[in-house]
Amino acid sequence: MSADSHKTFYLETFGCQMNVHDSEKVIGTLVHEGYKQVETVEQADLILYNTCSIRDKAEQKVFHRLADYKKLLAQGKKFGVLGCVAQQEGEKIFERAPHVSLVCGSASYRNLPEMLTQLEVGKREAPKPEARSLIRITGLDDRETDKCFETEFTARTNPHRGYITIIEGCDKFCAYCVVPYTRGKERSRTYESVLAEARQMADLGYTEIQLLGQNVNSYKDPAGKRSFAELLAAVGEVPGIRRVRFTTSHPRDFGRDIVDAIDAVPTLCDHVHLPVQSGSDRVLNAMQRLYTREQYLERIAWMRSAKRQISITSDIIVGFPGETEEDFAETLSLLDEVGYDAVFTFKYSPRPNTPSLALEDAIPDEEKARRLDVLMATQREIQIARYKKYIGTIIEVMVEGRNEARGQWIGRTSQNKTLNFTAPELATPKLGSYVPVKATASFPNSLVGEMVV
Ligand code: SF4
Fold it and tell me: Over its length of 453 residues, how does the chain's per-residue pLDDT go in tens digits?
């Protein structure tokens, strides 16, 4: 234990926003249990990694970290692996990294305080020092759980905008994805508990809320059967809330009512992230994505016909098993047809337990890399043209930070674009405030402007 008698912990997070928010909840829970968070591994009694297994690289990183710090075991430090890799690998983690004493999947976080107590008692009462390192506690959810990890102790790091998880798990079983195996079946929080958390955040001064879930569109209030669009609109109407975002959407469950809600409630941000993954029906079918290119484009048409100008972004995987040059060309043509404001691109990599593991991963890595480069270059041209159109317009931004080196403020628009801007000395904007900025120049991924006073 550290000198000031607090039990201390260090937590590093890998992966998506769901993991980032889970970590905020884990931190809040541990602090409530009397632990103190520290900045370095060396200062900590307990070292935790909240892991991601969506790509092999992220998983390997965790095992490298564990190997790097193994030597600290001699100082009595304890190591824990949380999240998706914990759920996926389970007790195999103890074989790969025998100095780990805690393995906890994401649906078992609510049991963390009890698990940590067991761990401490076990270590204290171990008959011999060498037996202490053999104490191992495992918390793995059964994936059929209907419980969400709700806690009143969330330690949000940003005082202006914060996440609320509305749904956990996923029932879609896309062929390449580990999430249904690591996060379990879909379970929604009640409409009332989400709204109560949103009101509480507004009372604390938060003005921006991001609703989170692996597939927010399939949200279904377990009590009142309210839809995602109804929940979205209700959160947007909470007094004090100025911006509401949501991620991630699945095209199959993305209804027109979501676009109607964005049109009707001005606090709902005019940005939708709608992952398409491929422009080819053949590949979409092999990926088990449950929609066709035409159905996807129908959803795009709903958004393009909205009264507000909705910014659309997406995720794309290249090199899925069996993707031909023709399939890839269809993805490129989809980019032109949709006109995305940003695309997150990935090379396919096989993941444990997933159906696509059985497919031959025959596209060489160099070819996947080539397709990725072509995709990114195509999208870059599209973004250059799209961002240029904002020059001369006045856009409201939330002030997120300051870049001293450039003498600029960092702002975010409702469309989720970065707008870096200068402000007159006498009108210094406050972090978290909303100010109008005139866009004066554009780059492929950001805008530049001057604050309007
Ligand atoms: S919708 Fe598909 S890609 Fe998204 S989390 Fe579920 S299985 Fe994974």
Answer: 444 457 999 999 999 999 999 999 999 999 999 999 999 999 999 999 999 988 888 888 999 999 998 888 778 889 999 999 998 888 899 999 989 989 998 878 888 888 888 888 876 665 555 555 556 777 766 566 777 778 888 889 899 999 999 999 999 999 999 999 888 899 999 999 999 999 999 999 999 999 999 999 999 999 878 999 999 999 999 999 999 999 999 999 999 999 999 999 999 999 999 999 999 999 999 999 999 999 999 999 999 999 999 999 999 999 999 999 999 999 999 999 999 999 999 999 999 889 999 999 989 999 999 999 999 999 999 999 999 999 999 999 999 999 999 999 999 999 999 999 999 988 999 999 999 999 999 999 999 999 999
Q: Which residues line ligand 1 (CB under 6 A)?
A: 170, 172-174, 177, 179-180, 214-215, 250
pTM for the model stands at 0.91
| Residue 87, both tokens | 């759920």
The single-letter DSSP state of residue 124 is H
Q: State in Å: Cα 173 to ligand 1 middle.
A: 6
For 148, the token pair is 């969400």
Q: How far is the CA of 289 from the centre of ligand 1 (A)?
A: 8
**Structural domain count, the chain:** 2
**423 by DSSP, 3-state: which?**
coil
Ligand 1 centre to CA of 274 (Å) is 12
Could you tell me if residue 13 is inside a domain?
yes
Say if 346 falls within a structural domain. no
Q: What is the CATH number of the domain that holds 117?
A: 3.40.50.12160
CA distance 338 to 73: 53
Q: Is residue 321 part of a domain?
A: no
430 secondary structure, DSSP code:
P
Amino acid identity at 10: Y
Alpha-carbon gap, residue 232 to 246, rounded angstroms: 8
**Of 390, 429, 387, residue with least CA distance to 409:** 429
CATH number of the domain that 445 lies in?
2.40.50.140
Supply the range of the domain harboring residue 444.
394-451
Domain end (from 81, 104, 139): 139
**Token pair for 158:** 């940003």
Determine, yes or no, domain membership for 269.
Answer: no
Please choose from 87, 181, 183, 214 the residue to mutate so as to test ligand 1's pocket, defined by most ligand atoms within 8 A of CB: 214
Which of 139, 155, 170 is at the close of a domain? 139
